[in-house]
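Weekly structure sync, notes
Attendees: PL (lead), two postdocs, one rotation student
Agenda item 3: pending single-chain targets
PL asked that the sequence for the first pending target be pasted directly into the notes so everyone works from the same version. It is reproduced below exactly as submitted, 137 residues in total.
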Amino acid sequence: MSEKQELQFAQNIVLLGGMQIIQASDELFNHVDAGLPMWSSDGDRMVRLNIAFRVTFADVPLINLGLTGVDSAHDQNLRFWLRAADVTPQGFSIEFSTWGDTHIARAAVSWQAVGEAYTKLPPSAVRGSRGNGELAP
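Predicted structure, written out during the meeting:
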């Protein structure tokens, strides 16, 4: 069973020379409140969240992905797999999967994309009178 989500994390963007770093952290899913599959089902389950970068990269960036929180049932083994998939200069997908009798109420993640900045970034997108590399919202 797979659930596809389309929520967007608030993204922090930094430009360093010709490099670009985009970072975000938030709750990936909450399945306990509505009795959704990660909490109420057994067997293979997956939540997939598509992330669109606010600013495109020049090439495919490197993705660092980490689990920052998990709430699970105490009477089953905690089994999960977290990965970044389908990485492009425009975005990627976060996949969180579990199996067996594991029940996960909620999970939170932090991610960071690092790569070459898109060279056609308009000057109006840069905040600060000295071009300090912070992008305007």
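Discussion points:
- The beta strands are 2-5, 12-16, 19-30, 45-52, 62-72, 81-88, 91-98, 104-116, 126-127, 134-135.
- The first helix runs from residue 37 to 40.
Action: rotation student to compare against the earlier draft before next sync.
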